[in-house]
Design goal:
Length: about 150
């Protein structure tokens, strides 16, 4: 039996667990460290042993809850992730991320001529063409995207 305590518990906040190995810093970029209070602790664990995944990453963020838009962005780059809301040290709610059929406002269309990239404010919208691996198409110009990290809005 191996005893370990890799990250200290948090009182209130969000745990994003079962992130694909090495992807936690990308997920952290979606969370947006700069939007957090400087007195709220963020713990990042890379390359943690996991029964289910072999290796995984974990993020624990104090005093933060994710917007639905950020959850959708996380689902694109870390589809195996689970999100737990911690209240008073206990898991209040745990869910898997899932990709909706339409992804609105999360990505920029790579087509510079697309109507969503023009000065008038039109929100981007992508439809799911394929789920494994994920392939999306712009709802306006049909441009396909599979490199989500570089097209986050
Ligand atoms: N007070 C806490 N502070 C920080 N992380 C916590 C706290 N309580 C639970 N967690 C983390 O939240 C996640 C969900 O907790 P839970 O007890 O359901 O985990 P688990 O039994 O390992 O389940 P699974 O790994 O199958 O999701 C885990 O990553 C756990 O480490
Ligand atoms: Mg676990
Ligand atoms: Zn487009």
């Amino acid at each position: 039996m191996v005893r370990e305590l890799k990250i200290t518990p948090i009182k209130n906040g969000t745990v994003i667990d079962h992130i694909g190995n090495g992807l936690a810093l990308d997920v952290l970029r979606i969370v947006g460290v700069q939007t957090l209070d400087k007195d709220s602790t963020v713990s990042v664990a890379l390359h943690v042993r996991s029964g289910k995944l072999g290796w995984k990453d974990i993020l624990k963020v104090e005093n933060m809850e994710l917007s639905p838009r950020k959850v959708n962005a996380i689902a694109l780059i870390a589809p195996t992730a689970t999100i737990s809301i911690i209240r008073d040290f206990k898991v209040q709610e745990k869910r898997t991320v899932d990709l909706p059929d339409r992804i609105v406002g999360v990505l920029r269309c790579p087509n510079l001529n697309c109507i969503t990239n023009q000065p008038e404010p039109i929100e981007s919208e992508f439809t799911v063409l394929r789920r494994r691996p994920v392939l999306l198409a712009c709802a306006y110009c049909e441009r396909q995207v599979d490199d989500f990290l570089h097209h986050l809005a």
